[in-house]
Specification:
The protein has 142 residues and is of the alpha+beta class. It has a domain at 46-140: RutC-like (60s Ribosomal Protein L30, Chain: A, 2-Layer Sandwich). It is 20% helix and 31% strand. The chain has two helices and seven strands; from the N terminus they run ββββαβαββ. Helix 1 (62-79) packs parallel to helix 2. The longest helix has 18 residues, at 62-79. The radius of gyration is 15 Å and the shape is globular. The chain starts with 12 loop residues before the first strand and ends with a strand. 23% of the residues are buried.
Length: 142
């Protein structure tokens, strides 16, 4: 969910369906640099596939950016009728894997041990100016 835009809530979410498949998509109404290239969220059989979420405030350190991204994810899931307990898998792209300890501290505050999803962290050379991490997420929608 790259780029600045309004916070995600019920007012700026629109649901759609591809006419030739069983795949739904969720459009979030805001101006983004990649408009026309992808959907931020795709749903198939009750599973949400959420594209890259980056921090809104890139001046923060790793822990701050992690809290920012995880907060955006929690808000998005709430708007879509799910929550962090329904997250199945997360891929985290980090510009510096040496900052994993700072990321993990924020992670533990958002995901209690009883609801830990599968997870992978991957080093990435460049995620954009000041961006330390980007997350893609797969979550169930009960």
């Amino acid at each position: 969910m790259r780029g600045a835009g309004p916070r995600i809530d019920d007012q700026n979410v629109q649901y759609g369906h591809h006419s030739r498949s069983n795949i739904g998509f969720i459009m979030i109404k805001r101006v983004l640099p990649y408009e026309g290239l992808l959907h931020e969220v795709v749903e198939h059989n009750g599973v949400l596939y959420i594209g890259g979420i980056v921090p809104e405030d890139t001046s923060l350190d790793m822990a701050g950016q992690a809290n920012d991204v995880l907060g955006q994810l929690a808000q998005l899931l709430k708007t879509l009728g799910s929550d962090l307990a329904n997250v199945l898998q997360v891929t985290i792209y980090m510009t510096d894997l040496k900052e994993k300890a700072e990321f993990n501290a924020a992670w533990k505050a958002h995901f209690p041990e009883a609801h830990l999803p599968a997870r992978a962290a991957i080093g990435a050379a460049d995620l954009g100016p000041g961006v330390k991490l980007e997350m893609t997420v797969i979550a169930a929608r009960p």
